[in-house]
Design a protein that fits this description.
17% strand; 32% helix; globular; binds adenosine monophosphate; five-stranded antiparallel sheet
Amino acid sequence: MNPYTIFSDIVAGRAPASKVYEDDDVLAFMDIRPWTPGHLLVIPKVAAASLAELDPEIGGKLFQVGQRIALALRQSEVACDGVNFFLADGIAAGQEVFHVHLHVIPRTSGDGFGLRGRPVNAHRADLDYLASSVRRVLAEGDR
Ligand code: AMP
């Protein structure tokens, strides 16, 4: 997949961004269409369209930076009593920009943001079956 997106321009400094954090591997900046005020994105500097293409070490750094920012948000002037992380990997998941990014979404009670309502409890047998399937694939990856 073509690795070029607007985020490459932001990393290169060719497009504007309201940056909040930058190091050798990771950049964080405000989302231009925020779900809540203070919503920002944490991205790898090296373009990766999907999680499959992302170096796992950099993936770990995305979370570490997201974690730091989540703590900082609570002490900033952003209204923030809680935080959601969200990452869309693939069209079916709602991904629109094909450069991996972790959404960090400040939350306040009653802000209206939300995914779907919680479904009813699943059957244990279904949970066990799917868990064993994912465990099997993880174990194969360790070999
Ligand atoms: P996603 O649906 O997870 O791919 O989300 C892409 C996100 O990127 C959306 O929340 C957009 O508002 C955001 N976005 C797109 N272009 C820019 C930009 N130039 N600067 C900041 N955020 C952007």
